Amino acid sequence: MYLKKLVNQSLVVFTLISPVTSIAIAKTGTVVTKMPLDPAHGLLEAKSQYRIEYTAVDGVRGKGERTDSAAVFIPFGPEPEGGWPVIVWTHGTVGINSDCAPSLNTRTARDSQYLNTWLSLGYAVVAPDYPGLGSDGMHHYLNAQGEGWSVLDGIRAALTEFPLKNELVLVGQSQGAHAAFAAAGYQPTYAPELNIIGTVLTGTPYFSAESDVASLFTKSDDKNQSSGDPKIPYIFYIWQSAADTNPTLKAENYFQNAALVQLDEAKALCITPLTQKVMHNRLNMNNSLTPNIQSLLTNALPSLSYPTLKITHPVFIGIGGDDINVPTAMQQQFAKDVQAAGTHY
């Protein structure tokens, strides 16, 4: 079958960053509410589609229960014996405000085409929003534990509520690749009952002790140094997430005056309007960031990092040679590091 062929050809990622310990928690992944999804936010290849809210552990803080949300799409056709196999779609950057949640908005043409294809092939789609998107609190951007635990609890909830088979493939793009790989890393200890048979990643963000802010943004000697950089919104979201945890952080220590208005607006603006403002105002590394921004990234590293790169199922990594959002060099380093761990593929 198509999916198994894809998995067999994929790159398996192995290496250990930090140990994942067992987590003693109450039962989570329980559906709290279930309602038909607004058709404007749905997919044409779905016979039925729902928005659910479910219980989850607060991964940002490492304890406590919260309620997160997801969309679930069921394909046309007779239900297969044992239930529908599942694509778990982890979405790219949408923002950090609750209103930016994919389940509350119309999906992009690209995402709709992609997910409709999976539905047409006979796969159900479970699409978590992540904590703080469509739910209470600020979304902590690229927080691996927050994303990963919520995705796994969303899968648990969907499996108990819908005719789905415990045969799962995580598929993520950009921030979604970060969320998918984090979920894959946490799964053995956080949700060992889930049967993840493969993970597909494209445009994967990767942070390590060697991560250098200067390498992520347009260099000062670049001929386009006066142009806006579409990656600036991402550092805004990372700072807002850090400031939500540590209110003593002062924006002016990390950002120049030209960027402060858009930095504040990042709390409310979803990615498209925020990026439009950044590009219109030509915000980039040279006129927006201070040298202290490196310390922001360094201090955020524990939350940005994957729990492990050693995954026991096949992982496919797709890299865009002209990616303007996740630097190609970052993606290549990710692939290089996991390959250096001795993984055959």
UniProtKB/TrEMBL annotation:
Domain of life the protein comes from: Bacteria
Organismal lineage: Bacteria, Pseudomonadati, Pseudomonadota, Gammaproteobacteria, Enterobacterales
InterPro entries named among the record's database cross-references: AB_hydrolase_fold, Lipase_secreted
UniProt keyword list: Signal
Gene Ontology biological process terms in this record: lipid catabolic process
GO molecular function terms noted in the UniProt entry: triacylglycerol lipase activity
Residues annotated as signal peptide: 1-26
Protein name per Swiss-Prot or TrEMBL: Putative exported lipase
Membrane-crossing residue ranges in chain numbering: none
UniProt-listed Pfam families: LIP
UniProt KW Signal keyword: yes
Keyword Signal: yes
